[in-house]
Design goal:
The complex is a heterodimer of chains A (696) and B (329). With 696 residues, chain A is of the alpha+beta class. Among the domains of chain A are: 90 residues, 2-Layer Sandwich (Alpha-Beta Plaits), CATH 3.30.70.330; 55 residues. Chain A has 9 helices and 42 strands. In chain A, strand 31 and strand 32 form a beta hairpin. Helix content of chain B is 4%, strand content 49%. The longest helix of chain B is centred in the last third of the chain and has 5 residues. A 4-stranded antiparallel β-sheet of chain B has the order 1-28-27-26, with no helix packed on it. Chain B has a 4-stranded antiparallel β-sheet with strand order 2-3-4-5, with no helix packed on it. In chain B, strands 6-7-8-9 form a 4-stranded antiparallel β-sheet, with no helix packed on it. The chains are: A alpha+beta (696), B mainly beta (329). Chain A: Keywords: Cytoplasm, Initiation factor, Protein biosynthesis, Repeat, RNA-binding, WD repeat. Chain A: Component of the eukaryotic translation initiation factor 3 (eIF-3) complex. The eIF-3 complex interacts with pix. Interacts with mxt. Chain A: GO terms for molecular function: RNA binding; translation initiation factor activity; translation initiation factor binding.
Chain lengths: 696, 329
């Protein structure tokens, strides 16, 4: 301790050592005679000088607010109080300065100093471009930014061109000369993914990658992209090699939905830790940019949370008593505010127009209501009041020609505190004829519970499964112009619980899905002929190919542990292929965009089908004969090898004959003739039948 | 043609076999009474009474004089076929899993289970004269199997070797002069349930729990062909006249009760011997098929199932007419 003190003393009083020389002999710190100090302070004390206060220090605390009203001295105080009110929200204002012109008016820009740079930055972020009133908009900048902007060179330099990135052909899958469709097969939970081409006579695997996804995979709605899930986010793959097209960083994203035109993708990460306001993100697919993020939905909602209009122009989300419609590409609310609809329960966009249908639940004496709303002008083009409504389901026909609202109605209601019990249920189908003037509405009433409703995708029929478990019926209705829907056909006592229309209409597959199911029926709804009846035991799903030529039934390993795999059928119900695959989990046909041919052109093709028919027929024949030739060649080769092997063995066998005879008492048992020579014929009597006849 | 249904057993059939001429069909089951039937009309000729439990295996000698059976009552029994009398009983330490006569029937072989503290053992016995004294005679040869137990067994041609199929899927060929292993291969991943020789004995087919049946060369144990299914295969047989194979099996008997017959896949399935392609199925059993056998004339086959029935099915003309396309030159 003493020593240290002494040291300090030495440093402090280099001059005074002459006075106190009591304890130690001090060295001489004086510069020698003639010493020139040629080392500058900067070199010696660079680190210390670094922290020397500068003139500009504290400038980052200062913001410049431009665009303020210009006022005279008499109203300066008022202005100051307004500014203070707005800007003190971000932190304490320690200093302010209102420059004035010669005639006493303020200049319209002011300087405010905060306690620290964070507050200043916050103020800039929050108030820049904010409207004070109709005439005045704040333009707020950090003081330090001015230096940045003043340093921008006067001469504009053209940006150097970026190297051109070759984009692979995203539409290649549509260019196949034989119009073979592709499909995706998922094995296990992310174990492997395969992309196949449904070629004739044998499907070809185009791509197979283990661990391509961590969970499952989906196609985009037009089939351009394949989306896979990873813990870091979602990746899109496209092009002939399925190269990575885009990735969206969103940890633990579990749900995605595409906009119908594939411009945007919504990702939802219920558990991700990117902050609460980053649970739901909308991205631009082509650029990969995050367009807007949203906090998580308040409660349990059905996915997709955002539902898109058919042209990607709008997307909407359901809230408590409110429907929020957003616009693209600004991603702001349409007309800056949500549509207030008290008691709104569900909504659905038309697949062909910018019209949405929503329904509002009953409230005391106010009946339930179904409304068709046109956007962006928000006109209600049709609404219908409904009474005694327990629930509604909105079903648009795929071509947007009809809308069906299935209404669950009750005859009695019992309210127990929070519990509402309905009894005496019956069901209405409200059919809206969208293409007719004033949109007439027809009703069909059915007294039995409804298990399924499906529209014919192209056409004007719909099918329902109804009845109790003892007698499940399937009914087909035809919707006519200006008339109530007519019952076309009713099948009673059917085992089916699901309906799958061909994407082209007319044909339908009736199926019994589930662990106890498996029954299948292929039906032509033109004349209601049953084309085939078959089964695929315990099937868990059915997928029509986008052209309506093939149907796939599958048993997924996620639903059932035995006999996982898929069967490929023709639309008439002819089995084409059985593929058993351990761990088979997912089957998805690659979608196709809508046809570019006009209705007239399509009709033309249908009319001249016979002309094209023979050409395709001969092509098919050639292919199958080629395939069978290959098979025959393979078999011939196998048989040749086998015959060689057998010849060698027969020779060996023949050589061993004496030893065989020796072992069996010289009885030759080699021949097929099972009667050895010299054997004794024995008569065996069989008891055939016994008859008793009474003799008179 | 309508199959003959042979109802005589009270429990699951474990093995069936034709005699060399094919006029008789023998069956053993989990009840204690082996049966013999006229293969022509399915009438029962008689039963063999004596076993005290499950009977696992049987074999008939080439002259149809003696029958050998082995069972869960720890005995291997020999029967006189003319009278149906139990003429010799060999007591063993544990269940007899397999038993077979050699080509000449001068010798027999049987194997026991590894159970009750006793190892799995292979015994070779002299069967030239069969009488009471057999039970006290020492076997000609016996050896222990230390690793996985024997689940099926065959005599090689000419009485020189035997081939054992094991629980773990191994196949071992033993030289009987030295009692040593000649070949050992592992082509199956699970238990080998059954092995049957081709008519001339130069090839044999295995049926395994690993859902496949495989064809091997008898002398070299070389793998020749493979037939795949989606269910454990309990039995497989080679047609004596055509290049056909029949496979039988189905879902494990233990799991059957919880599911329907549709899922069990209890069909007898026909494959082409060389092309390994399936070309036909015969339905009928409502439990797994445990044993299959072609009639020596190749014109019918019999199957015995977990359901306790033996079904004898004659082939229609279309079976003989069916051909595969290949270049025959």
């Amino acid at each position: 301790m003493a020593k240290k003190k002494g040291d300090e003393k030495v440093n402090h009083t280099p001059q005074s050592d002459n006075e106190e020389q009591n304890f130690d002999e001090e060295p001489n710190f004086e510069d020698p005679e003639g010493f020139v100090d040629d080392i500058p302070d900067e070199e010696l004390l660079a680190d210390v000088l670094e922290s020397k206060p500068k003139e500009s220090d504290g400038y980052e605390n200062v913001v410049v607010v431009d665009g303020c009203p210009q006022v005279g001295p008499e109203r300066l105080e008022k202005l100051q109080s307004v500014i203070n009110k707005i800007f003190s929200k971000f932190g304490k204002i320690v200093n302010e300065f209102y420059p004035t012109t010669e005639n006493g008016l303020t200049t319209g820009y002011i300087f405010l100093e905060y306690n620290n740079p964070q507050n200043a930055a916050e103020a800039v972020a929050a108030t820049n471009n904010c409207k004070l009133d109709k005439q005045h908009t704040f333009l707020v900048n950090l003081f330090t930014d001015f230096k940045k902007y003043s340093d921008i060179p006067k001469e504009w330099e053209p940006p150097s061109p970026q190297p051109f990135k070759v984009q692979s052909d995203l539409q290649w899958y549509l260019m196949d000369p034989d119009a073979y469709d592709q499909f995706l097969v998922g094995i296990g939970t992310g174990v492997a993914l395969q992309v196949w081409q449904n070629a004739l006579p044998e499907p070809i695997v185009l791509q197979e990658r283990p661990n391509w996804t961590e969970t499952y995979a989906v196609w985009s709605p037009l089939g351009t992209y394949l989306a896979t899930f990873h813990w870091r986010g979602v990746a899109l793959w496209a092009g002939p090699k399925f190269s990575q097209f885009q990735k969206f960083y969103h940890p633990e994203a579990r749900f995605i939905s595409f906009s119908p035109c594939e411009n945007y993708i919504v990702t939802f990460s219920p558990t991700g830790d990117r902050g609460d306001d980053k649970k739901l993100i909308i991205w631009d697919i082509r650029t990969g940019q995050e367009k807007r993020s949203f906090p998580p939905p308040d409660e349990y909602v059905t996915w997709p949370i955002f539902r898109w209009s058919k042209d990607d122009r709008f997307f909407a989300r359901l809230g408590q008593d409110v429907l929020s419609v957003y616009e693209t590409p600004s991603f702001g609310l349409l007309d800056k505010k949500s549509i207030k609809i008290t008691g709104i329960r569900d909504f659905c966009w038309s697949p062909s127009d910018n019209i949405l249908a929503y329904w509002v639940a009953e409230d005391k004496d106010v009946p339930a209501r179904v409304t068709l709303l046109e956007l962006p002008n928000r006109t209600e083009i049709r609404s219908k009041n409904l009474f005694s409504v327990a629930d509604c389901k909105i079903h648009w026909q795929k071509s947007g020609d009809y809308l069906c609202v299935k209404v669950d109605r009750y005859s009695k209601v019992k309210k127990d505190k929070n519990d509402i019990k309905y009894s005496g249920m019956y069901y209405n189908f409200e059919i809206f004829h969208m293409r007719e003037k004033e949109i007439p509405v027809d009703s069909v009433e059915i007294k039995e519970p409804i298990q399924a409703f499906t529209w014919e995708p192209i056409g004007s029929k719909f099918a329902i499964i109804h009845g109790d478990t003892a007698n499940v019926c399937i009914s087909f209705y035809q919707v006519n112009t200006g008339q109530a829907p007519t019952l076309l056909k009713k099948f009673e006592r059917t085992p089916f619980n699901h309906l799958f229309w061909s994407p082209m209409g007319q044909f339908i597959v009736l199926a019994n899905l589930g662990l106890t199911g498996g029954a299948l029926e292929f039906l032509d709804t033109n004349d209601f002929t049953i084309m085939n009846v078959s089964d695929h035991y315990q099937m868990s799903g059915i997928e029509w190919d986008p052209t309506g030529r093939y149907v796939v039934t599958g048993v997924s390993s996620l639903k059932c542990k035995m006999d996982c795999g898929y069967y490929l059928w023709s639309f008439q119900g002819k089995i084409l292929r059985r593929v058993m695959k351990e761990g088979f989990a997912q089957f998805l046909w690659r979608p196709r965009p809508p046809t570019l041919l006009s209705e007239k052109q399509q009709k033309e093709i249908k009319k001249n089908l016979k002309k094209y028919y023979s050409q395709f027929e001969s092509k098919d024949r050639m292919r199958s004969s080629k395939a069978s030739k290959e098979l025959v060649a393979k078999r011939t080769e196998q048989m040749k090898k086998y015959v060689e092997y057998r010849e060698m063995k027969s020779q060996e066998w023949a050589e061993q004959k004496p030893r065989r005879l020796e072992l069996r008492n010289y009885v030759d048992t080699d021949g097929i003739d099972t009667e050895p020579s010299g054997s004794v014929e024995e008569v065996v009597e069989f008891f055939i039948k016994e008859e008793k006849t009474v003799i008179e | 043609m309508k199959p003959l249904m042979l109802q005589g057993h009270e429990r699951a059939i474990t093995q069936i076999k034709y005699n060399r001429e094919g006029d008789l069909l023998f069956s053993v089951a989990k009840d204690s009474k082996p049966n013999v039937w006229w293969s022509l009309n399915g009438e029962r000729l008689g039963t063999f009474n004596g076993h005290g439990g499950v009977v696992w295996c049987l074999d008939v000698d080439w002259e149809t004089i003696h029958l050998i059976t082995g069972g869960g009552d720890s005995s291997c029994r020999l029967w006189d076929l003319e009278t149906g009398k139990n003429i010799a009983t060999i007591k063993t330490n544990s269940s007899v899993r397999t038993c077979n006569f050699s080509f000449s029937a001068y010798q027999g072989a049987y194997t026991t289970d590894k159970a009750m503290g006793h190892p799995c053992e292979v015994f070779i016995i002299d069967t030239r004269t069969i009488d009471d004294s057999l039970s006290s005679q020492a076997p000609i040869l016996k050896w222990e199997i230390t690793d996985s137990k024997v689940t099926s067994m065959l005599w090689g041609t000419l009485d020189e070797t035997i081939i054992t199929g094991h629980e773990a899927g191994d196949l071992i060929q033993w030289d009987l002069r030295t009692g040593k292993k000649l070949h050992s291969i592992k082509e199956h991943t699970h238990q080998i349930n059954d092995m049957q020789l081709s008519r001339d004995g130069t090839m044999f087919i295995t049926a395994s729990k690993d859902q496949t049946a495989k064809l091997f060369d008898t002398s070299s144990l070389e793998l020749l062909k493979e037939y795949k299914t989606e269910r454990p295969v309990n039995s497989a047989a080679l047609s004596p006249i055509l290049d056909h194979v029949v496979l039988g099996g189905g879902q494990d008997a233990m799991e059957v009760t919880t599911t329907s017959t549709r899922q069990g896949k209890f069909d007898a399935r026909f494959f082409h011997l060389v092309f390994e392609e399936e070309f036909g199925r015969v339905k009928g059993h409502f439990g797994p098929i445990n044993s299959l056998s072609f009639h020596p004339d190749g014109k019918s086959f019999a199957s015995g199932g977990e359901d306790g029935y033996v079904r004898v099915q004659s082939f229609d003309q279309s079976y003989f007419d069916y051909t595969f396309d290949y270049n025959r030159d």
